[in-house]
Amino acid sequence: xxxxxxxxxxxxxxxxxxxxxxxxxxxxxxxxxxxxxxxxxxxxxxxxxxxxxxxxxxxxxxxxxxxxxxxxxxxxxxxxxxx
Length: 83
Fold this sequence. Notes:
- The protein has 83 residues and is mainly alpha-helical.
- The chain has helices spanning 2-12, 15-47, 51-73.
């Protein structure tokens, strides 16, 4: 999924906006990857089961897909002549 972030940003934002937005997206991605394993361990310690940890991961992935779909389905701001 991570390589698709750059493609989506490039296709749906102007070059001036894309650089900033891609930096924020990649920073959030790395932050999520760094904390995801730790958070799952904490959830397991509290609940004694991986069920809640998997549900937490699924919820974040649903949010991720929702944002990507929102970006894909909204109208483009750039015309093909300026691209």
